[in-house]
Amino acid sequence: MSTSPTEVERSRLQRVRQWLMPTRRAMLNTASILLLLAAIGPELPLLRPVHSFMFVVDISMSMHTRDMHIDGEPTSRAEAIRRSLTDALRELPCGTRAGLGIFAGYQTMVLYQPVEVCTHYNELASSVAKISPKSIWASDSEIAKGIYNAMSFLEESDRETQLVFITDGHEAPPISARYRPQFRGTAGAVKGWLVGVGESIPSPIPKIDDRGKQVGVWREAEVQQSDPYASGRSTSGGGEKMADVGAGKISADVAARLQTSPGREHLSQLRETYLKLLAEELEFDYTRLGGGTVFAAKLISGQASAWRWVPTQTSQGLGAIAVLCLLFAYWRSNMNPVAWALYWLSWPMRRWQASRQARG
Fold first, then answer.
1. Confidence class for position 243, pLDDT limits 50, 70, 90
2. Mean pLDDT of 221-238
3. CATH value of 46-311 in 3.40.50.10700, 3.60.15.10, 3.40.50.410, 3.40.50.1580
4. Rounded Cα gap, residues 171 and 145, in angstroms
5. pTM of the model
6. In 3D, which of 181, 278, 270 has the Cα closest to residue 286?
7. Percentage of the chain with pLDDT > 90?
8. What angle do CA 133, 137, 140 make, to 5 degrees?
9. What is 296-348 written as a DSSP string?
10. Other CB atoms within 10 Å distance of the CB of residue 288
């Protein structure tokens, strides 16, 4: 008896459907294997967007100022930075790279290049815990020059890495709008963040002796109150102005945003308006230092530095696929999705009725 072409075609479609639609047993076996693998928790290399950061911490004398709080208790800016940065490093996803540097005077000193945060977290946290203004090597704090110095280092060595410069923005000695440092590089060539620390209300700066003990606070007469370039130099004729060679143009808006305060430079506050000005000029982002979780979330919310193969925990993905296999297995039991859902939702009621019948 001959087979019609229609029946042959139908037979082929049935075989293809059986191949594409695995049996319920196959789905249950697959789900079991996937759940077992999920419990083991294997790591697989996956191509993911990752970030790379160079954290530079201001360790100038104003970091001793106690206008921050940890768990409701007053603390110094340096201690607040250590706590927040340690927590942020813990929250950064695996694959992220982080390096560490410190700033004083007008220079940034890189302690080490970016390394993977999960593999090297203990070393990173240990290094952060040792960061202290007691390590200062210069009494000045030329913030803009320090940022430019760090940017030039990254531009020459690692443009993929973003600079994260943590500071209160307190220039010491103060700078004027005419003679403030000018950035000679290309804005945007290095990406990054300026992170402000401190409160907006001026506070005394503790004076620390060679043994690390506080011996009072800095007084007005002990601190430079104006830009020495704008004040002129000491001559027989008095305050002679320096030549304006290379001086920038004076802008009333810029002058106001520098937040200089002659007569009060011995007090310290977060110069947030000034840091925002620098961030705009350098095409950086700006944020205030907060808790480590929030800090880390802000950093990784920006554009990724690069795409890399990263060892990734697969337990959640495997578990999700196993659940899909279980759903598919019971969908294959000739029950439509609504009937299948009602069947399992009514399972406790059926068990209760069965137990009553058994007792009756």
1. very low
2. 65
3. 3.40.50.410
4. 10
5. 0.72
6. 278
7. 39
8. 85
9. HHHHHTS--SEEEEEEEE-HHHHHHHHHHHHHHHHHTTT--HHHHHHHHHTHH
10. 14
